[in-house]
Amino acid sequence: MKIAVACDHAGLQLKNVLIEEMQKAGHEVKDFGTYTEESCDYPDYVIPTAKAVANGEFDRGVVVCGTGLGVSMTANKVHGIRCAVCHDTFSAKATRQHNDANMLAMGQRVVGTGVALEVLKAFLETDYEGGRHQRRIDKMMALEKQQ
Ligand code: RB5
Q1: Residues 96-110: pLDDT tens digits?
Q2: How far apart, in whole angstroms, are the C-alpha atoms of residue 106 and residue 135?
Q3: What is the CA(18)–ligand 1 centre distance, in A?
Q4: ω into residue 36 within 30 of 0, thus cis?
Q5: Residue 17: strand, helix, or coil
Q6: Is 67 annotated as a binding residue?
Q7: Which of 42, 56, 75, 122 could be cross-linked to 89 through a Cys-Cys bond (beta carbons 3.0 to 4.6 Å apart)?
Q8: In the chain, what are the domain boundaries?
């Protein structure tokens, strides 16, 4: 899969671990930054990442900040993005099966590396179930056209 990733200063270490894992698993990863622990503003990195996922350049996106919250809120402002904050494997699996989430957000200050790697694996390896869920996603995404 082609995966776009980004973080802020508070998510750098976890992002780097996730990138290494995705590359090991054979995924093509593009890192949109940030690349240092110098304080920065997550929208500067998340917006280009989310746009690249929304326009089909990448299959999925993975974003990390201190909590996972700011990066997910930002990504979800981009039309076409369904970004889920997940710190457990049940949620990561469910958001793929039911919500067809195309971006995952995690918080480096919230979750340990071991759990984060399992969450990532569940997110990348779980398929969308379609069926009744499509109707709900269609209603959700229709908002983007109305507003
Ligand atoms: C940075 O201090 C922190 O606010 C940021 O990483 C993120 O957690 C915001 O939602």
Answers
A1: 999 999 999 999 999
A2: 27
A3: 18
A4: no
A5: helix
A6: yes
A7: 122
A8: 2-146
Q: What is the token pair recorded at 20?
A: 């290494």
What is the model's pTM? 0.98
Spatial distance between the Cα atoms of 130 and 117, rounded to a whole number of angstroms: 26
How much distance in Å is there from the Cα of 12 to the middle of ligand 1? 12
Q: Count Cα atoms within 13 angstroms, Cβ side, for 62.
A: 34
Any residues with Cβ below 6 Å from ligand 1, and which?
Answer: 8, 10, 65-67, 69-70
Structure tokens at 30: 């593009």
Q: How confident is the model at residue 7 (pLDDT cuts 50, 70, 90)?
A: very high
